[in-house]
Automatic annotation (TrEMBL):
This is Corrinoid protein. Residues 88-212 form the B12-binding domain. It comes from Alistipes intestinihominis. PROSITE patterns: B12_BINDING, B12_BINDING_NTER. Keywords: Cobalt, Metal-binding. Residues 1-88 form the B12-binding N-terminal domain. The keyword Metal-binding applies. The keyword Acetylation does not apply. Signal peptide: none annotated.
Length: 212
């Protein structure tokens, strides 16, 4: 292929069909699937994530890029050897019990998926029991808790206490986010990390798992 960076650009631009076409051509030219993921697809997602953080791109841009990334990965799946780990980690994510907000949480989930994580999205109004069960069932590396209300954010503490009771707290990193949440609150309830936006969430998760 003349210019492999076109793949990254297609992700940044959120062009699903173009990304799939370019990835298909790269495979035909003999390029290794993992190289395409590491050197071009994730680079594109990192770029759009940074633009979003810098307020040079917006929610629709981020979602379109994540969609293009997922589409490109679908093209690559048949060409991946069984030894190649297609996911860099497993994330369980949900909005805590009593809270029905999901736009921000879904944006973070899309960003995680686009950057190579396996995502288990539990939705809204999720009980501590359901979070604990999902962490255990999917052997999660990261648990992301979201809350948009001051009245529901304290439920995050319940989830962490239940993880502890189940003997899972040491096995999973807990990240929290949402409008009323901050780093001081995260530290107070025993979470590992607070992040304020989708890009920071992915960057923080990679740091927690010592990736990149």
């Amino acid at each position: 292929m003349e210019d492999m960076n076109q793949i990254s650009q297609a992700i940044v631009d959120g062009k699903l069909e173009l990304a799939q076409e370019l990835v298909g051509k790269a495979i035909e030219s003999g390029m290794d699937a993992q190289t395409i993921i590491n050197d071009y697809l994730t680079v594109g997602m990192a770029e759009i994530g940074q633009r979003f953080q810098d307020r040079k791109a917006f929610v629709p841009n981020l979602l379109m890029s994540a969609r293009a990334m997922k589409g490109a990965l679908e093209v690559l799946k048949p060409h991946m050897s069984s030894e190649v780990e297609t996911h860099i980690g497993t994330v369980v994510i949900g909005t805590v019990k009593g809270d029905l907000h999901d736009i921000g949480k879904n944006l973070v989930a899309s960003m995680f998926e686009g950057c190579g994580f396996k995502v288990v999205n539990l939705g809204i109004d999720v009980s501590s029991e359901k979070f604990v069960k999902a962490v255990e069932e999917h052997n999660a590396d990261i648990l992301c808790l979201s809350a948009l209300l001051t009245t529901t954010m304290n439920y995050m503490r319940n989830v962490i206490l239940e993880l502890d009771k189940a003997g899972l707290r040491s096995k999973v990193k807990v990240m929290v986010g949402g409008a009323p949440v901050n780093a001081a609150f995260a530290a107070q309830i025993g979470a590992d990390l607070y992040t304020s936006n989708a890009n920071a969430a992915v960057t923080g998760a990679k740091q927690l798992l010592s990736i990149a």
